[in-house]
Design brief:
Layout: H1 35-46, H2 51-54, H3 80-84, H4 87-122, H5 126-154, H6 162-173, H7 177-202, H8 206-233, H9 239-258, H10 263-269, H11 273-282, H12 284-292, H13 297-303, H14 309-318, H15 328-346
């Protein structure tokens, strides 16, 4: 049965395709690979898993609060519009908001699937091609897991948001391989890790928490892949080339920070849209969440060498400059460890 009937907005209004240009690079050097990337490739092979068997799909979700999240995670919680809602209306808000969040995870993972397939095609080194090939399988598995969670358990889905759509299009359509890395492996995947972590660590529903924990185990490798490749490449850029990439980072980060207003949900539920958006943007909880989204991005951007005055000024303006001191590698190692703890609990 088609899954399109789950969407709260007709897919005819949101279908998306665009033209892009890729340069295909084949290499005849099969032995000379970077040790760290080849080690990551070896880890990627060993850590493949089956979403159908590793996750216990017999678990159900609470119809009134599917992922069992604290209501303080609702962007309009505590506002006058929230206080006016009946309990039945609050149930609909919880259900739709959680479905909309998971839907963006699902669509983002499909974007990552396309982007990583492009990396296999365009990156010059065989070591990066090898690892990217394992990531293509990872991303397909992530799309599968989120699609099943949405369509079988929440029975509700939302189309891709305009903000995510724009960022994905910029990332995938650029013909330069490093821009695909930068947009996907560093920015989008870094943002996703922080969003996944919020659910992994706060959802009281074990199925929802497990899906995000297992996806994060893979994503930790993906971000490490981007860091290794770009850390070697960016020192060789000209000042003009580096400036262009720093400008892209700044614009993308502002774009990502400001896109969390859930307009589609408020419109679908028939709530006062502008009042809900205003409450969302003024919410202390939401402000903290938008800040925490950059815990994974800022130290990685610094690590790969895109740390000019423009980037530092933008991060200071966002209030996230202090994240530059975070040990990003330790966070990624912890993501892998937490996934293993979920396995242990299931056993």
């Amino acid at each position: 049965m088609s899954s399109t009937y789950r969407y709260q907005i007709p897919v005819e209004q949101t279908q998306w395709k665009f033209e892009g240009q890729n340069e295909t690079i084949l290499t005849w050097e099969y032995e000379d690979g970077r040790e760290k990337l080849l080690n990551l490739y070896d880890k990627g092979k060993k850590q493949q898993w089956d979403a159908a068997s590793r996750i216990d799909w017999s678990q159900d979700l609470d119809p009134e609060n599917p992922m069992m999240l604290d209501d303080r995670a609702v962007p309009i919680w505590g506002s006058p519009v929230w206080e006016r809602l009946t309990e039945k209306e609050r149930v609909r808000v919880r259900h739709n908001l959680q479905a909309q969040t998971l839907s963006q995870f699902m669509h983002g993972e499909q974007g990552a699937l396309i982007a990583t397939a492009k990396i296999v095609q365009t990156v010059p080194g065989v070591d990066a091609k090898f690892y990217a090939a394992t990531q293509v399988m990872d991303e397909a598995r992530h799309v599968e897991a989120y699609a099943r969670l949405l369509h079988e358990k929440l029975e509700l889905a939302y189309p891709i948001t305009p903000g995510l759509k724009t960022l994905l299009e910029q990332t995938i359509s650029d013909r330069r391989w490093d821009m695909t890395y930068l947009g996907m492996q560093i920015l989008i995947e870094g943002l996703a890790l922080a969003a996944f972590q919020r659910i992994r660590d706060t959802a009281k529903n074990p199925l929802a928490a497990a899906v995000n924990a297992y996806v994060m185990q893979d994503e930790a490798r993906h971000v490490a892949f981007g860091r290794l490749a770009l850390r070697d490449y960016y020192p060789n850029l000209s000042d003009g080339e580096r400036d262009e990439r720093e400008q892209f980072v700044v614009e993308a980060c502002y774009h990502m920070r400001d896109r969390f207003n859930q307009r589609e949900v408020w419109e679908t539920l028939g709530l006062p849209v502008e009042e809900c958006i205003q409450a969302t943007m003024q919410s202390d909880q939401m402000r903290q969440f938008r800040t925490r989204l950059f815990t994974r991005i800022v130290p990685t951007v610094k690590d790969i060498g895109l740390w000019g005055q423009r980037v530092q000024k933008a991060y200071a303006d966002m209030g996230v400059l202090d994240f530059a001191t975070i040990d990003a590698e330790a966070l990624l190692e912890n993501d892998a460890r937490v996934a293993e703890e979920f396995d242990a609990r299931r056993r």
